[in-house]
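Changelog entry

Holo records now carry the ligand SMILES as an explicit input line rather than a separate metadata file. Below, a converted record for zinc ion, shown in the new format.
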Amino acid sequence: MAAPTGPLTLPAVVEELLSEMAAAVRDGAPLLPRLKFVFGSSAVQALDLVDRQSVTLISSPSGRRVYQVLGSSGRTYTCLASCHYCSCPAFAFSVLRKGDSLLCKHLLAVYLSQVTRTCQQLSVSDKQLTDILSAEKTQEA
Ligand SMILES: [Zn+2]
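Structure line, unchanged by the conversion:
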């Protein structure tokens, strides 16, 4: 029986890679060579974002969770790890439109910070979280 795959499913290859990364972290193995092999220069940029603690997990009482990543340009991008989405132009262009990348450096940084448990945590009210999400939409317009 084939499992249905939809937009809410993490691409299998990413999922596979993440468990590989988690194992590498446990064993103290370096992450970069394998990441670079799969993601090229995005891997270096994503690890840099993680090193600079640019990833923040924002959660609200109702259980909604979004990630915010402070990009190298100083802009903040909103990432939804649960449905594999980032608000940056690179994601819209390379991932959604052209389909030649699996993810952008922000999403990769989000996944890496999950694996290495290095993301910042921020609790906000439901109203604040909604505001964060709608502010992001306004910026896109
Ligand atoms: Zn992005």
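Spot-checked after migration. Residues 77, 86, 88, 90-91, 104, 106-107 surround zinc ion (CB under 6 Å). The longest strand covers residues 65-70.
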